[in-house]
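cron nightly-structures :: item 1 of 1
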Amino acid sequence: MSPEVVKADSVELKWSKPDEAGLVQFMVEDKGFSEDRIRNGVRKLEKCKEGATQGRLDSFFTKLPSPATASKRKATGEHGHGPMRKKSKLSTPLLHKKK
């Protein structure tokens, strides 16, 4: 397989209104797509082009000041050794499978 490849620096891209007649001819007649589907796609493209541009994701979030903590030590257990452990609460008794 040897696809036709064009060098990127020799191509000039320009965003303009889509050529609806050209798209319909190429996609419907040459490639066998549904004409209604192609025309709806062109309408969607035109509608998106008229709308506002998408904002940056970082503009959605605001940086909050970090809260000052008194101590960064881990809480210790009753006897002052190691981290505190929560007592587990079982809502149902353990079930054992019969062998």
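cron nightly-structures :: done
The chain has a mean pLDDT of 78.
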